[in-house]
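Why this split exists: single-chain examples teach little about how molecules sit against one another. For that reason, every record in the complexes split bundles all components of an assembly together and asks for one structure covering all of them. Below is a record exactly as it appears in the raw files.
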Amino acid sequence: MNSKSIVFFIYSFILYVLIQVLFLKYVDFYGYAFCFAYIGYLLAYPLDFPRFPYLLIAFFLGITVDIFYDSAGIHAASCVFLAYMRNRVVKGFAPTGGYETGSNPNLLDMGINWYITYTVLLAFLHHLVLFFISASNLNLIGITLIKTVFSVLFTTFILFLGQRISVTYQQYQRRRRR
Amino acid sequence: MYQLIQFFLRLRIFFTFVILEIIAAWLIVRNNTYQGVAFFTSSNVVAGVLYTYVDGISGQLTLRDEVERLQKENASLNQQLNNLKFRKLDSISADSTTLPKTYKYLPARVINNTVRFTDNYLTINKGKIDGIEVGMGVVSPEGVVGRVRSVSNNFATVYSLLHSNIRISGQLSDSKDLCTVKWNTEDTNNDYRQAELQYIPFHVDVQEGDTIETSGANPVYPEGIDVGIVESVKNDLSEGTKNVKINLTVNFSNIKNVYIIQNYYQTEIDSLEQNLDPLRSK
């Protein structure tokens, strides 16, 4: 990892957090579907990078979002859970022959089927932990599950939209270079 | 020894995971039990300043409504003042003017507010420097809003009435029967416009359209501040209580100007009530 990519890592961290707490925090569908697209930052972490810093980054991202949501610890717990579970989940639907080294878990490298499965599964794990901790009441289990499912769909939709835009942009750049 | 180190090295990811989750759990528990810890809340400096900037932009959009609402409040206050002046002329004796004042209102602006979560908070732009303390009541011109949770130098976080830990001691404005207002019960699921009255026995006469106000039993709010208007009444035979739904008078989705209520006798009342506790436990 060179210094340029470290700067990029930090910039995109700030960008994801700002978009989450300034815009997406206030977006919801009738209190049933929320968008936590900041997990896109964790999903974009390369698959073959070390896992120890990954867990720390996840914790730090969660705490930062928690500060703005006034929910000390809830987002941190679910982000760390996501980071811990990612490699196990990803192993489950690896392409034949395993992942190529240096491939990034995004739409451009992996294709649409892989990316949607990846995002839905991990967003589901993250949101499940998030909503069950914040509900802290098993009477509301049905509502909590409904919220989780709708929020996963919403988050996946927003993340996919972002990925699609970036793919189009990269293809456009490539064409211009030719 | 070497094998032990090998063992820990192999499981280091798992141990990191467990340690981080324990830290997160500790933060969550501490957040629910201790009030007034300002660092990990939106009353810390970075979040406060950021939200102030955002409010500076988005506040312009609702300015017209806000001015109208404050004008309405001004009008009603002027009317009350006039009535008082006339009354003073004929009936009230001089010593009522020397009555000690109990409540002080500090104006503040809401710079961040949510209504859709199971625990909602507001952030206001007044803090320790302006005399805000943990536990003070927060009201808007329309009614009760919440209670101060944590304070930093320039900002404060407020438990919204839309929070699972908040109960407000209320009363029926006509009969003065006490009740408890609670948000987000099974019937009013996450609806920021409605709340429920708890522990109302059958003999209490509640009608649709009755006004619920603060009781003054809890010294945080003065008596007679609006909370809601009764929407429906049902008898719950299994619990032996009435099931009352109310519409909140405050519209939490567009709340901008609030007052923080300081009770001059809060510490005195607190220390009195603390002295009661040992007796109760015996």
